[in-house]
Design a protein that fits this description.
about 375 residues; alpha+beta; Butyryl-Coa Dehydrogenase, subunit A, domain 1; Butyryl-CoA Dehydrogenase, subunit A, domain 2; Butyryl-CoA Dehydrogenase, subunit A, domain 3; 3 domains; 4-stranded antiparallel beta sheet; 11 helices; globular; binds flavin-adenine dinucleotide
Length: about 375
């Protein structure tokens, strides 16, 4: 079905990632990382060894080339056994791309090669206790001291992957109290910087990547940690959010497809009243509805990724893909829970994990309500005085 919308090379690439997930990662591994709240270091290293962390990074910067469409297909494949697993790989790529776009020559030399080789990773710290959907309400302050170093104080929240080994946190900080958007900057802060206190949070989802809160009390960071220019933070983060939404939408689609496959298989195996439960029309229709949603979600992803690959403005299309992909994952996982009956409650069925991750998918990266606001903005609704 997918190949109708992909050329041969793209279909082969998606199959390569899917096969890799089946043979080299496996659903059992992803499930174990979730139940043990363990970062998937081994699989991350295998993905790095494939050179896949370098996708989208230009070849003259040491990357593997490819565009955001190729990258989205990778995200779709990586998401198949759970969105959390895909996150552990995709989140670092957002900052890598920001370094390619906004980084100094020194930052590129320091970070890009070790990132592609899997030796370091990145996390993104935008959110704070008072800055969620209102992401620019950042209160964590950064000021320069007499040597030019940055002194950072404040509290960040929900930073996924920040506790993993060898992680550099791309942190949105306030450098000018008077200018809401123009007063923001991004600092690259290694997670072992003295004074950075990272606490893991016992969240419902994101068990493997891990989500954290971060406390900073007069933490000293070198002047060279600034990504881009002072005051460019909002631009860097906004650029990043569009890439993030495109990538996560693809991963939701991959995960939703797996939820439907799992439900479909179970409906054929489970016998009640002397016949497989898929023969009950209510079950058949739930499967048909779910598959239709997944196909629509996939097409929205492909449209957004293709537009972005062509350099077209795609904020609205990206938000549509993110909105519909996340709501589709939630609805397919919920229907999957119903189709699998009591069995769905067990970790080995995977469906409760897909459901937990789906509940976060309509929140992280901008909630479904915020996506609808972005979409409505592009509809040029009249404003009233
Ligand atoms: C597991 C997990 C991992 C995360 N990982 C990261 C990460 O790595 N880095 C990071 O920076 N952040 C991360 N986040 C934070 C995430 O981006 C925020 O949770 C999200 O942006 C929503 O912010 P909030 O939770 O403060 O909700 P709020 O903004 O307080 O929203 C609460 C409710 O109000 C609604 N609402 C708010 N404003 C509006 C509005 N203007 N119009 C309509 N409805 C509105 C929301 O849609 C939501 O339903 C993560 C969150 C979770 C749960």
């Amino acid at each position: 079905m997918t190949s109708n919308f992909l050329d041969e090379a793209q279909a082969d690439w998606l199959k390569t990632v899917n096969d890799f997930m089946d043979k080299e990662v496996t659903v059992e591994y992803v499930r174990a990382c979730d139940s043990e709240r363990r970062y998937p270091y081994e699989a991350y290293a295998k993905i790095a060894a494939q050179g896949w962390l370098g996708i989208m990074i230009p070849e003259d910067e040491g990357g593997s080339g490819g565009d955001i469409f190729d990258y989205s297909l990778m995200a779709e494949g990586l998401g198949k056994f759970g969105f959390d697993f895909a996150c552990s790989v995709l989140v670092p790529t957002f900052t890598a791309m920001n370094i390619i776009k906004f980084g100094s020559a020194t930052q590129k030399a320091t970070y890009v090669k070790p990132f592609i080789e899997g030796k370091i990773r990145f996390s993104v710290s935008i959110s704070e206790p008072d800055a969620g959907s209102d992401a620019s309400n950042t209160k964590t302050r950064a000021r320069r001291d007499e040597n030019g170093d940055w002194i950072v104080s404040g509290q960040k929240l929900w930073c996924s992957g920040a506790a993993a080994e060898d992680t550099i946190i791309a942190m949105l900080v306030r450098t000018d109290a008077q200018d809401k958007h123009g007063g923001l900057s991004v600092l690259l802060i290694p997670n072992d910087t003295p004074g950075v206190e990272i606490r893991k949070l016992p969240t419902l989802s994101r068990h493997a990547t891990g989500t954290t809160e971060i406390f900073l009390d007069e933490v000293r960071v070198p002047a060279a940690a600034l990504l881009g220019e002072v005051g460019q933070g909002w631009k860097i983060i906004t650029d990043h959010l569009e890439l993030e939404r495109c990538a996560v939408a693809a991963a939701y689609t991959g995960n939703a497809q797996q939820a439907v496959h799992t439900a479909n298989r179970y409906a054929q195996e489970r016998i009640q009243f002397g016949k497989p439960i898929y023969e009950f029309q209510v079950i058949k229709h739930m499967l048909a509805e779910s598959q239709t949603q997944v196909d629509a979600a996939r097409l929205l992803c492909y449209r957004a990724a293709r537009m972005k690959a062509q350099g077209l403005p795609a904020a609205c299309e990206t938000s549509m893909a993110k909105l519909f992909g996340s709501e589709t994952l939630k609805s397919c996982a919920l229907d999957g829970m119903q189709i699998l009956g009591g069995y769905a409650n067990l970790p080995e069925a995977d469906m409760e994990r897909y459901l937990r991750e789906s509940v976060q998918s309509t929140i992280g990266g901008g909630t479904s309500q915020i996506q609808r606001t972005v979409i409505a903005k592009s509809m040029r609704l009249p404003t009233r005085a």
